[in-house]
Specification:
globular, mainly beta, 173 residues, Pnp Oxidase, Chain A
């Protein structure tokens, strides 16, 4: 393992150390999601790549939200939310929901589930969840949801690595 120039040293400049940590974490490729809920002022959506499965019995998933998010209170108060896993064709949707603007649903197509949660069309998967637990952890909250309904299709997912979007390449058949 080569740690020479890219390892963080104890006692160095705190901002530089955080940047190096962020760069190290960015080496892990993730899928890209938009987490949606119904807030008191209308539908909310936020881009997140901190999604993970937790358990099959009961069916639990988690995601993280920064404590500085403009939409934080809506998600902390939400009984239900949806994790929409974006397809490789939805990079612009990811960028759109990464904005810190409470009008992010302006011009965006969505359906409303029977639980009142905004559901985005054409995603590779969607998990509609009931909030199960919320954990205060560092500069984020970890929100655990119990999956009540889900669906998927065969489209390729949008991926994020090293600060850039990418997709799974077609295999040579």
């Amino acid at each position: 393992m080569n740690k020479s120039d890219n390892s963080s040293k104890t006692g160095g400049d705190a901002d530089a150390a955080l940047l190096k940590l962020r760069q190290s974490l960015g080496r892990f490729a993730t899928g890209v999601t938009v987490v949606t809920c119904q807030g008191s002022a209308g539908p909310c959506g936020i881009t997140a790549n901190s999604f993970s499965s937790v358990s099959l019995e009961p069916p639990l998933v988690l995601w993280n939200i920064a404590k500085v998010s403009n939409s934080l209170q809506a998600y902390l108060d939400a009984e239900y939310f949806a994790i929409n896993v974006l397809s490789a064709r939805q990079e612009s949707l990811s960028a759109h929901f990464a904005l810190s603007d409470h009008t992010v649903f302006d011009g965006v197509d969505f359906e409303t589930s029977d639980k009142g949660v905004p559901i985005l069309p054409d995603t590779v998967a969607c998990f509609e969840c009931r909030t199960y637990q919320i954990h205060d952890c560092g500069d984020h909250y970890i929100i655990v949801g119990e999956v009540e309904t889900h669906r998927f299709d065969d489209n390729k997912p949008l991926l994020f690595v090293d600060g850039q979007y990418t997709a799974i390449a077609d295999s040579a058949d």
